[in-house]
Amino acid sequence: MIQLSDHFNYKRLIKFTLPSVIMLVFTSIYGVVDGFFVSNFVGKTPFAAVNFIMPFLMILGCVGFMFGTGGGALIAKTIGEGDREKANRLFSMIVTVSVICGVVLAIAGIITLRPVAALLGAQGQLLDDSVVYGRVIIIAIPAYILQYEFQCLFATANKPKLGLLVTVAAGLTNIVLDALFVAVFKWGLVGAAAATALSQCVGGILPLIYFAKPNSSLLRLTKFSFDRKALVKTCTNGSSELMSNISMSVVSMLYNVQLLKYAGENGVAAYGVLMYLNLVFQAIFLGFSVGVAPVVSYNTGACNYDELKSLLKKCLVTISVSATLMFAASELSAKPLSSLFVGYDESLLDMTVNAFFIYSFSFLFSGFAVFGSSFFTALNDGLISALISFLRTLVFQVVAVLTFPLIWGLNGIWYSIVVAEMLAVAVTAAFLIIKKKKYRY
Measuring CA to CA, which residue among 264, 270, 255, 258 is closest to residue 349? Predict the structure, then answer.
């Protein structure tokens, strides 16, 4: 078994992070599966509705990433310092607080769902379908938050393979229930949403049961006293991931508003197909970053600076190779993947394939900023991590998506993400150089 204290060569690095990668890829497939069944068995407008309301739902659930990454960094650092009991208390407090937040967010989400959808421009059937799908998903928000949180914390607990098994179980639940509820029972959007909600319960509640009982991992739920300072540190550490997810969702909403203006519902549907590929590819980068984060945090706490420097170099090489492969794969698969979702509509298919070819260039750059933000989180430098995420996912993209369409029309919307990712890489590189002396990597 690979330990956090081991020396990591490329083989060991890939082996240790692979379960986290697969976990997040499986999670991203939830939306992909929903989209496939809704588009092919329910219709184009319901498909557009799923993609239209999904950013709002992701905002509600992304608190789990904040607690998972921020808490994971603090817990792993505490383990590296040799205090296992404190690590368990921190773990228990973070899980409890996240459940409470989930309940509050679910209530708030149900109340604000329709007004938010209407404010973003949804009307008629698009509005009604968005609300129908969203209300079912929101019921499972507490489990959704736990699922994202445990995906990060399984690596911290030194049980990435167990986390993978739980995520695979949740993913298979979603796929099977989608086929049953949508294709067989013909329950439409309600069936697709119910399948996703139930799969999230599998992914969130099973780990809760595991950690509540005696287990062989580094962590277990136990009695704790509220530690305000540690909770603030957790939120600060994870603020970049929270900011990144909120920003991406806000930007997605803005994209939908712009697409409704320049291309109508077809534009929203085309963007939805791009987002499915983006979710999977970004999940690979994020999964790798989440998987390696506990190792970075442990070696920071243990003052193993040579190992930290070696890790950074290997991570950058790994991301470079992965980014090149992803770009090539997306260019080659643009038409087949587009046909899988919208092959029934020729004009929509042409729009989607054109967007694919442009959007794919963003994969050459995005992984570096994703890793850079996660790397600084693992170093317990939440401020720099948050700055990278804020600039990448909000500032650069908002400016680009508002200005580029004025020059290039619809294509300007697709160009905007590529330019935003290029700027984010430059910012990430600058911070890595500036902070090198302080963290001795």
Answer: 270
